[in-house]
Design brief:
Blueprint: H1 5-32, H2 36-42, H3 58-83, H4 91-101, H5 107-124
Helix pairs in contact: 3-4, 3-5
């Protein structure tokens, strides 16, 4: 509850700024024009990345990883925007979005771990 006009103006200004920001995020999501189903089919949670690929198939493995990195770079900004509306999504979708954009234990960490394990396996051979 505001006790004076200055407090009211401050509250209104902050509310207006947040509303404007959310409207822009919603417009950006709509303009992206792609369904989250597209990325969930390409990148499963957790991703199934073979880390026991023989050195002879290294080029194929690198191409697969490149596809994952491209998907991450393309979708992460949009999923970060979608996360701002997480209460509107089904729990499974919300969990996927959180996992994908999470820095420490999400998709990016899974990629890094897979790359380290695969390189270690190749060094052994």
């Amino acid at each position: 509850r505001c006790t004076n006009n200055d407090e009211y103006q401050k509250w209104y200004s902050e509310l207006y700024d947040r509303t404007t920001e959310l409207k822009k995020a919603a417009r950006d999501i709509k303009a992206f024009g792609r369904s989250i189903k597209e990325i969930t089919k390409l990148v499963q949670m957790p991703p199934r990345i073979d880390v026991h690929t023989k050195p002879e198939r290294a080029l194929e493995w690198v191409r697969t990883m490149h596809t994952y990195h491209d998907a991450y770079n393309e979708w992460r900004p949009m999923l970060k925007l979608m996360a701002r509306f997480s209460e509107l999504y089904h729990e499974q979708t919300r969990n996927y979005i959180d996992w994908f954009v999470e820095a420490g234990r999400g998709f990016a960490a899974a990629l890094a771990t897979a790359e380290e394990e695969q390189l270690a396996n190749w060094k052994k051979k």
